[in-house]
Amino acid sequence: MAEKRQHPNILITGTPGTGKTQLATRLAEITKMKHINIGKVAAENECYDGYDEALDCKVLDEDKILSCIEADMAKGNNVVDYHGSDFFDEDWFDIVFCLRAEIEVLNKRLEERGYSEEKIKNNLESEIFQVLLEEARDSYDPEIVHQLSSNTLSDVESNLQRISTWIKSWHSDNDTDVDR
């Protein structure tokens, strides 16, 4: 990006069911950042490139998604939530938080969503083997990738505090005005 942003961009990633959307929504409310839920952007702009029968989900058209959010990302002040992280432009994010959940907690959440046995198994294996954490570490400078526990409401509150503190530090380090 040619011009330095006045506000940071944050990516919240992790296995489905770890609480990304809940955290991103609350964070956006508290910080007045724009919440970009990639699933909603895809649905609103028909950013799909087929259907995965095995996982029972639509296949994302990544190039179309990138086009849809590029202008917002250039401005900054966004909290993006999506389970994948490897297709975004590397310089879009100032920090990446990968949410992690205990297997029992995650299993219960996915069952409550009505996911098929195969889809639950796939997501639990992804969490066990840290697939999305490793994807984020491979896609961005590992120094900006942080994992956060997301098992309880207390974890959510702690994560909100931690990220809010980071945002204040980012503004201080970048000599930008924290007032929006």
Write up this protein.
This protein has 180 residues and is α/β, with parallel strands linked by helices. The chain has a single domain, classed as Rossmann fold (3-Layer(aba) Sandwich). Helix 1 (20-31) crosses helix 7 and helix 2 packs across helix 3. The strands form two sheets. Strands 2-5-1-6-7 form a five-stranded parallel β-sheet, sandwiched between helices. It has helices spanning 20-31, 38-45, 62-75, 103-112, 117-128, 131-139, 153-173, and strands at 9-14, 34-37, 48-52, 57-60, 78-81, 95-100, 145-149.
Task: List its salient traits.
180 residues; Rossmann fold; two-stranded antiparallel sheet; alpha/beta; 7 strands; 19% strand
Layout: helices, strands, pairs:
Blueprint: E1 9-14, H1 20-31, E2 34-37, H2 38-45, E3 48-52, E4 57-60, H3 62-75, E5 78-81, E6 95-100, H4 103-112, H5 117-128, H6 131-139, E7 145-149, H7 153-173
Helix pairs in contact: 1-7, 2-3, 4-5
The secondary structure category is: alpha/beta
The main sheet comes to: 5 strands, parallel
Helix percent reads 40-55%
CATH architecture classification: 3-Layer(aba) Sandwich
Order of helices and strands: EHEHEEHEEHHHEH
CATH topology: Rossmann fold
Rounded to an integer in angstroms, the radius of gyration calculated over CA atoms is: 16 Å
Unreliable stretches: none
Shape: globular
CATH class: Alpha Beta
In whole angstroms, the N-to-C terminal distance is 21 Å
- What integer is the average pLDDT? 95
- Please state roughly what percent of the residues sit in beta strands, choosing from under 5%, 5-15%, 15-25%, 25-35%, 35-45% or over 45%: 15-25%
Number of strands: 7
Q: Count up the domains.
A: 1
CATH superfamily placement = P-loop containing nucleotide triphosphate hydrolases
- Number of helical elements: 7
Order of the strands making up the biggest sheet: 2-5-1-6-7
